[in-house]
Amino acid sequence: MSTQFTVPTREQQSENNLPTYDAIKNGLGFVPNLFATLGLSDNGLQRYISFQNDKSSLSNKEKEVVNLVVSEVNNCKYCKAAHTAIGKMNGFTNEQALELRSGKASFNEKYNALVKLAQNITETRGHIDQTLLENFISAGYDQGNLVDLILQVGEKTITNYLHSITLIPIDFPEVSSL
Q1: Distance (Å, rounded) from C-alpha 32 to C-alpha 172?
Q2: Which residue in 8, 49, 67, 72 has its CB near the most CB atoms, within 10 A?
């Protein structure tokens, strides 16, 4: 037996999630399927968006560096597609997004240290290569940035797992495998 998941509509969202659902729709013009699916929980959408939108020492562009590589490591087709599109909105080219997904950033030394450590954190579930941490610090990041990087890896892993389990339809332009 296989459990099938469908993307919940606005009418299927809880009262707790509706303000967040409506804000996303007003801001983007649509509610991405993965966000709507978070609404299967009475508090899921509001809780996740609050976590995602909270302050970080990482810039939006740095968050996309992390999102792209974490989604690649976790093989989340939805998030690879979504964050390639969002990465472009933040100034990355298609080629740069592909390179970031592969765990390197030859075009930017600081992003290179960030993407390599994010990849290693995800692959090793936190049992990192200390050299990569030293390179991260040498590139200009600090211990506070490390905490925010770990939070970003965790935040992206949540949606990676949600899609891998639910397999809801991808509503962003799909991207090729590496």
Answers
A1: 8
A2: 67
CA neighbor of 132 nearest in space, from 116, 154, 148, 146: 116
55: region left, alpha or beta (phi > 0 left; psi from -120 to 50 alpha)? beta
Which of 9, 72, 18 is CA-nearest to residue 49? Answer: 18
Nearest C-alpha neighbor of 17 from the set 7, 40, 27 = 40
Q: Which CATH number fits domain 60-166: 1.20.140.10, 3.90.1170.50, 1.20.1290.10, 3.40.1080.10?
A: 1.20.1290.10
Query: Which residue carries 């303000």 as its tokens?
Result: 19
122: its two tokens: 């995800």
Domain edges within the chain: 10-53, 60-166
pLDDT(111) > 90: yes
pLDDT at 2: 74
Residue type, 49: I
Q: Name the nearest CA neighbour of 168 among 85, 98, 82.
A: 82
Residue 129 has a CB neighbour count (10 Å cut-off) of 14
